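Suppose you are handed a protein chain with no further information: no name, no annotation, nothing but its sequence. What can you learn? This example shows the usual starting point.
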Amino acid sequence: MPDYAVGDLQGCFDPLRRLLDRVAFDPTKDRLYCVGDLVNRGPQSLEVLRFLRGLGDAAHGVLGNHDLTLIMAHYGHGKRSKSDTFHHVLDAPDGGELIDWLRGLPMLIVHGRHVIVHAGLLPQWSVAQARELAGEVECALQGPQCEQFLRHMWGGTPTAWQDDLSGWDRLRVIVNAMTRMRFCTPEGHMEFHAKGPPERAPAGHAAWFDLPHAAWRTHTVVCGHWSAAGLRVAPQLIALDTGCLWGGCLSALRLGDGAIFQQQCRKFATGAE
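A reasonable first move is to predict its three-dimensional structure. Written in structure tokens, the prediction is:
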């Protein structure tokens, strides 16, 4: 009964099916964990959501920034980008059911010694604290305050975590760290503009996973979000966004033994991430 984690799909359904065929994925025995950004920019967001929802208990995943953008669009919030390609989901007869399924996904999954999250974790967060904080966002997203939360969710401030944060500021920092972060300072101040490789960190910042004394390092974080970082297998880190959308590979990790599987993809998108 192998468990697999798969990198950012972003509406690339055909590569997912080919990759699952390569590993002989059996939904009656195996489990699939998606690291977020199931939808957008690629051409098959609707097919991805229908397929994963149809797998039932065999499919799990965490929310990424593009998934949240789709949820916001469904509720009439946020600004649409010319590069958004999830209109088929919004127009589908089962679109509302798919959005409800997506909205029910967690922000973070603890799977044994692995932690699955879309973007990353702030250095001062232990895994236990991160799980609790993720739960706060999940309650807001899945509860009666969902639309009010969505109206306040996006934004670049505050840039850092403080234990006494409250209200929308508190939830926004959690969302930003877990779905948007690439670079931060050792004190956990996030920077949201730089999207290049980890080696080109802004002054005073580092890739969030390069901070050596982070509290989350009791576990191995499995993440996506950062195609410029590529596949990275390092102590306490496995990064799986290998740019399927941009003509790279779709990558999967077998959680039991660390084996990596990749499927070459054709380019679906152009321009900046």
